[in-house]
Amino acid sequence: MTKLVQYPSGAYVLERDADRTPVLETYHLGIDFGGLSAVNNFNIIVGPTEISGLIGPNGAGKTTVFNLLTKVYQPSKGTILVNGHDTSKMSTVDVNKAGVARTFQNIRLFENMSVVDNVKVAMHNSMHYNPLTAIFRTPKYYKEEKRIHQKALELLDIFNMSDLAETEAGSLPYGAQRKLEIVRALATKPSLLLLDEPAAGMNPNETKELMETIRGIRDKFNIAIILIEHDMSLVMNICEGIAVLNYGRIIAKGTPKDIQNNPVVIEAYLGKPEQED
Amino acid sequence: MKKTIRKIFDKKHISRTISYLVVIAGFVIIQLLMNTIGIKSLFRSLLVPTCCYIVVALALNLVVGVSGELSLGHSGFMAVGAFTGIIISGLLEPYLAINWLRLLIAMFVGGIMAGIVGLFISVPVLKLQGDYLAIVTLAFCQIIKSLLNNVYLGVDINGLHFSFVENRISLAQGGRMLLSGPMGAIAITRLATFTAGFLLILFTLLIIYNLTYSRFGRSIMAARDNRIAAESVGIHIRNTKMLAFVISAILAGMAGALFGLNYSTLQPAKFDFNLSILILVYVVLGGLGNMTGTIISTMILYALPELLRGLQDYRMLIYSIILILIMLVTNNQTLKEKTENLITKIKSRFLKKGSVAHD
Amino acid sequence: MYFENIRKGVESMAFLSYLINGMGLGSVYAIIALGYTMVYGIAKMLNFAHGDVIMIGAYTAFYCLTVFKFSTFTSILIAVLLCTVLGILIERFAYKPLRKASSLSVLITAIGVSYFLQNLAQILFGTNPKVFPELMRNSTFSLFDGQLTLSYKTLLTIIVCILIMILLTIFVNKTKTGKAMRACSQDKEAAQLMGINVDNTISITFALGSGLAAIAAVLLCMTYSTFTPTLGSMPGIKAFTAAVFGGIGSIPGAFVGGLLLGIIETLTKAYLSTQLSDAIVFMVLIIVLLIRPTGLLGKKVHEKV
Fold it and tell me: Which of A82-86, A92-96, B271-275, B295-299 shows the lowest per-residue confidence on average (mean pLDDT)?
């Protein structure tokens, strides 16, 4: 098991990441909707190669946190630092360029496009030709398109999807669609990958495969991953650090072992044990 | 060479190739007819306007079909292009006698002018979404028409004279008015040719297809299909839509210039929201995103009222009924099935008559 | 000094009279805008043909008054009834089959219906402008020692509009049908599951909007007595703009949007320029939408991520 050490700030981080800038830091992050505080005082630090978990009962605000990190919602308070850079003035697009990519709870693929085109869209910012080049089809256009096509196929190949390259994304089976969303997110060359319930709707075999996939992504691409998940076997198995959210607040943070034995967490999920008469 | 030919007919490219072929075929056939058996002058007078409407419809399809935004103001871009083209042609006339060159320059400048206007209005327009975006494009179209109705432009040996709202221009000897407010432009030298229209359509197809099948097309369509997902992978929605919008404006402006130089007089009132709506109908009926469909639907829908001229006052009524019926049949599942069954029945009845009896 | 005050007084009186005339025009826009906004709220469609229903109302009232020589009240009643039925028929045959179609398809169909009505009117009634008979004397009354002159027609228009607004608000908030309309606007399927007859509710909405259109037609023709088959075109577009301006789908929004549009149009014509009034009115619309993207009283729709 990987060892956690403490940062000067007191936060726990993987030993191997101790000397590196965290990929994500949040301080007092929060958002209010009307009078309701959906997320409040959210503080985490994620190391640059950490697999981190964000769990909690339904409605706890987990996806809201992802939306805050990717600026789909503007935070009402708090700071977010990505690789040390303050994202307060950034838009969703800027945050992605800064190195954060995500998948969605309800799959959001470009359904009418082919699998490879879905990936190519995500590679838009790695391509360097202007509209005039495209219109007049200069050699640069053909060179760039060929290069990106290669790169997209290579990426799909890592996930055994290259033979599906020309298939329409909307016609893929559910599991493949979820995988494609991950591939598309990775195509943006992130340093932090946010996965929103990647195991939703999967059977135990698929979940096991997913575990390998996630570990593989972290090892191969050397990035950090934050998972929102309800499947505890998955979370406890691959996450190195876990934060538990309830009613928009963090109620516990630590290693899987810490969390499993934490009475506050148990109560949040299962409710208070009945009083014995 | 063989490889290229095989490429343009493969699955990926076939629909584009068909578009080009349809346009080329249409041009060749009409030219042949003109030079052999001849065509009626009514038909001949429709050639250039049809080309212009096809180009504007294609340009609109780029915004509505490919980019997924409803624009009700494209006649405004046509107007800008038309009057810019007329002015440029009028100014150059004493100095440049080569007609096709003057036409080309007029179309080019008209397109650029429309593009600048498009760029300018895309900033507020793209801050909005859906129906609100549509109503703002309509508002801009009316504003453009209203402003053009108040522009007075004259030229004489002392140079250009401009007046707004009221005509306070007094021209020196030999001077002439280029634009006269609501009267628009009069005494335009007609430069437009069917060949120019044909070439413009090809040019439009080239731009639209080459843009759509590139990284820009992919991001435009991604922004259309799933805005939030597109943003999450780094697509700047506003810039992307702006690209489609401005290119569309440029093309509509060029078509406008050709249109304007096809008539001897032209008033700004011609370019109101009714024209925008008409072109939108051509686009929707041809299929959103379907360029070949747009070309065919524009040809049919623009020519149809003219061909029904025999029915005098009833033609627009019949036209509107046909429009409603087509929309009902293509969009309602039960009606669609009923119509398809009807067509199958009619087909089988005809086949029965001609075929040999089977066991 | 004394003359300054008089001049200021006269100016402010002129302003007041323009304001009130603007409210008169705006009242007509508001009544028309109600039709657009209610239909949009419940069916999420732009009823492009609404302006032409107004035109049909105008011709109906015209023929009732001139050819059949009915009384004013009867003529207006018949016009309202006819427009109501027309609205229901249009919805039933042109829009209902397209409930599941894309909004763009419905828009095009509505455009088809609009062209149909305009051309039908052209064939039946001819394109020559007709003159609407005088229903009310053009009399005016004065206030403030003769400095402010208002016409009874304008006052009537404004009063009718306010009345309609009050009655409609009561109807929508207090009656069963009104509540059904609101429910369908929010969630058709849930409303259906609650036992609401969605089809009938939508028909009633169209009926209501179209009936009001007939009243707007009469008020419009009272002020601008000549009309042609394209009567509904420009006021239709302006009223639709007003509905969006006030927040499409919101009934008070239609009221506010319509009144403001009428006032802005009249003041622009009076103080700035008649020829540029259209441009300026639309410019104001754009500026307002940029500040409040869903209209003055519109509701923001949040997309769930």
Answer: B271-275
The alpha-carbon radius of gyration of chain A (Å, integer) is: 20
Number of H-type helices and E-type strands within chain C: 11, 4
For residue C242, the SS3 value is: helix
A206 and A72 belong to one structural domain: yes
pTM of the shown model: 0.89
Minimum Cα–Cα distance from B226: chain A residue = A110
Residues of B at the A interface, defined by Cβ within 8 angstroms: 206-207, 210-211, 214-216, 218-219, 221-222, 225-226, 228-237, 243, 247
Q: Are residues B172 and B241 in the same domain?
A: yes
Beta partners for residue B54, in sequence order: none
Measured between alpha carbons, how far is C114 from C108 in angstroms, rounded to an integer? 10
C126 touches B at CB < 8 Å = no
Q: Could you list the residue range(s) of the whole structural domain that residue A182 is in?
A: 111-188
C-beta atoms of B142 and C279 within 8 A: yes
Residue B11 is classified by DSSP as T
pLDDT tens across B192-240, in order? 899 999 999 999 999 999 999 999 999 999 999 999 999 999 999 999 9
Strands C226-227 and C130-131: antiparallel
ipTM (interface pTM): 0.90
- Do A207 and A141 lie in one domain? The reply is no
Comparing alpha-carbon positions, the chain A residue that sits nearest to C302 is A73
Q: Which of B139, B150, B281 faces C275 most closely, judged by CB atoms?
A: B150
Output the CA torsion sign for C184, C188, C193, C197. positive
- Measured distance between the N- and C-terminal CA atoms of chain A, rounded to whole angstroms: 42
Residue C239: DSSP 8-state: H
Is the pLDDT score of B358 beyond 60?
Answer: no
Contact A46, A224 (CB under 8 A): yes
Q: How many structural domains does chain A have?
A: 2
Q: Where are the beta strands (DSSP E) in chain A?
A: 4-6, 12-14, 24-33, 36-46, 51-55, 77-82, 85-86, 100-102, 192-196, 224-228, 241-246, 249-254
